[in-house]
Amino acid sequence: MDTNDSNDDAGSGRLAVGRRRRATRTGTVLSQELIVQTAIRLLSQHGADALGVRRLGAALGADPSALYRYFHSTDELVLAVADELIGMSLKDAQVTGDWRADLQRSGMSLHRTYTAHPQAAVLAASRVTRRPNEMRGIESGLAILRDAGFGPDDAARYYHRFIDFTLGFAAIDAAAAALSADAGAADRGAWQATYACLPADQYPHIAESAQALAQTMSVSAYPGALEVFLDGLEAALDRNGR
């Protein structure tokens, strides 16, 4: 929802929150949940332009001014979208007692959710939502680290590193997925078309690793990097006697 797009009945762009469900002119019952789901769908089609109230209103069959009853601003809608992505990722969350497997599952689920919704993820990855799904995610992550043997303070510090590490990779991979088809193909093809052809006398290390670069740079580094991160956590536990 872009406040620059709201020169009609919405006024200044400061919105009065309404929790009541209202039927649109097409008979659809309008709600915060429906607006967020529609915003995520439109983001995949139109990028950040999807958050204009006219485009959202048209997709919902609602007058644009009706959206202002549910969200104060565009930023509030972005935070709700971010929290919805976290909620999607938590469907696979478990605390089984195997801390490494639980943390790996949590990270891979979050990364998978973000890269499946790249346009939304680019907006959401750096945000703190202050909403229920984020709170559940933090509680779950801390529980896993506490069960691993970390004390409360160390659990907080390692959770911070884990979540920023995961979201950083998710943001990079989501941004790559959000590229146009031509730009994405050019980037992936560069490892064969450009780097594999560099002269070995000038770039000896690139030349000897050219095929490996072409293979590894075309896929996400997150799964392998996550294993390295988890190895580091195991080492930290060993140093502290678990």
Provide an overview of this structure.
By secondary structure, the protein is mainly alpha-helical. The chain folds into two domains: 3-72, Arc Repressor Mutant, subunit A, CATH 1.10.10; 82-239, Tetracycline Repressor, domain 2 (Orthogonal Bundle), CATH 1.10.357.10. It contains eleven helices and two strands; from the N terminus they run E-E-H-H-H-H-H-H-H-H-H-H-H. The protein has helices at residues 32-46, 53-60, 74-89, 99-116, 118-124, 132-148, 152-177, 181-193, 204-208, 210-216, 222-239; strands spanning 22-23, 29-30. The protein has a two-stranded antiparallel sheet. A hairpin with a 5-residue loop joins strand 1 and strand 2 (29-30). Residues 3-19 have low confidence and may be disordered.
- CATH architecture classification of the largest domain: Orthogonal Bundle
Output the structural class. mainly alpha
CATH fold descriptor of the largest domain: Tetracycline Repressor, domain 2
**Strand arrangement across the biggest beta sheet:** 1-2
Percent in strands: under 5%
Number of strand elements: 2
Mean pLDDT: 88
| Radius of gyration, whole Å | 22 Å
- Helix coverage percent of residues? 55-70%
CATH C-level class of the largest domain is Mainly Alpha
Question: How many domains, as an integer?
Answer: 2
* Straight-line distance between termini: 48 Å
Unreliable stretches:
3-19
Count the DSSP helices: 11
Shape: flat
Task: Give the H and E element order.
Answer: EEHHHHHHHHHHH
The biggest beta sheet reads: 2 strands, antiparallel
